[in-house]
Amino acid sequence: MKQHQLIYKIVLTAIFASLCYVLTTFVSIPIFGGSGYINFSDAFVFSLAFLINPVVGGLAGGIASMLSDLTLGYTQYAVFSLIIKFLEANVAYLICYLMSKKGGFNYVKAMISMVIAGFFMAGCYLIPDWITYASGIDTSLSALLLTNFAFNSLQGLVNSCIALVLLRAMYPLFHKDKKGKTNL
């Protein structure tokens, strides 16, 4: 039985990674200066973290984002995207889990945790930005890092809202008790 569940989660991860890849690659908004792009992968990361589990959400979003970076020519971000998206899903889930210890899960707690995880993601992307652009740029590096942080934060906020809508629509499909009632 456990092997069946493992195969099921691997297949779900692959399916959602491919969906996330298509959405991320073909619906992306480049940031001026060629230093990255805004996308909707975090909506998948957050939704899957809460609907299935944070490992599936993190892997699906991370693999998709890494492949999108490679496809779109942002190779310097590829490995970082895999790691950052994986961590982002786990941070969102962990924060919500800790807040839900008293009073149980609700959408407000989920939204708060997704927003915090979105800012965490934006902060993490400062690392590859700094590594990539630190050589040769002195005073304008701060402006570039601040701009990229702002765009990544905006991406996290927008994706948190999208994920909340997806969660409200899909949570009842994934979380039912033995009598068919939603566990919320």
From TrEMBL:
A GO term from the CC aspect: membrane
Keywords: Membrane, Transmembrane, Transmembrane helix
Transmembrane segments: 6-32, 44-65, 77-98, 110-128, 148-171
Entry keyword Transmembrane helix: yes
Keyword Zinc: no
Protein name, as recorded: ECF transporter S component
